[in-house]
Amino acid sequence: MLVRLITLGLALLFAVGVQARELRVALGAQEANLLHSPVEVGKARPQPGGLSGFNEALAREICRRVAARCVISYLTFAEILPGVEAGQFDLGFGNYLRTPEREKRVAFSESIWRSSSRLVAKPQVIQDLARRIQQEVTLDSLRGVRVAAVEGTQQYVYLRHVAEAQALTVVSFKTMGESLAGLKQNRVDFSLLPMLSVFAQFATEAPGSFEFAGPPVADRGMGGTVHIAIPKQKEDVLLVVNQAILAMRADGTYQRIVRQFFPFSLD
């Protein structure tokens, strides 16, 4: 009964409040070849599995529930928030943690999952550094290495903050795919990335290509609840998107989407 009431309320809110036939959706591209190619939902070539695939599936389900034609654009992480802030996009899926600085720029939906960060490197690189520093390799024990992060992320902000104290050379990439390619090509020694972003990628690589170094990090601004970014002026869109998320959780659809991509809960 509750699910039916939520669904009915969602339909009424969308019809009366939003009065839109189209929602413009910005999705973070995992690979550079997907960038800047607007496609209508239903005609898009789905992104690979893992977090990128999950975000795309979630966007499609929200579009279906609010009866809108959604047009997806694949962007780099650094491009999504400015685009949403400027009203160029109605929904921004950039795996955004909610921070005071970002809340000044955009509105945020209900939580869609929880995030933490991990260091990633080739196994031999981890072993060599552990021998050199005579301790386990963690985010705090990194010294004198090249570390990559995706431009504009909380991981990149943190690395820049500690770079001088830990003698780190910080390198930015536009996508996670580029960051991992940098590891393969020995352009960087480590990458600091959201754990879920690389979870599925490990399965596509030859066994032993990459390993996590150190424990997950959820403090220092690099972990917490993740939200969809929505323009501040689009309060009607925020309302129906939140209703859709709550309805998906209530009727089990959210959990089914998670199971398509991950063997564990994202909450």
From TrEMBL:
Keywords of the record: Signal
Pfam families, per the entry: SBP_bac_3
Identification of the protein by name: Amino acid ABC transporter substrate-binding protein
Key word Mitochondrion present: no
Native source organism of the sequence: Candidatus Dechloromonas phosphorivorans
Keyword Transmembrane: no
PANTHER family on file: AMINO-ACID-BINDING PROTEIN YXEM-RELATED, MEMBRANE-BOUND LYTIC MUREIN TRANSGLYCOSYLASE F
Gene3D superfamilies listed in its UniProt record: Periplasmic binding protein-like II
Classification of source organism: Bacteria, Pseudomonadati, Pseudomonadota, Betaproteobacteria, Rhodocyclales
Superkingdom: Bacteria
Annotated Solute-binding protein family 3/N-terminal domain residues: 38-265
SUPFAM superfamilies to which the protein is assigned, alphabetical: Periplasmic binding protein-like II
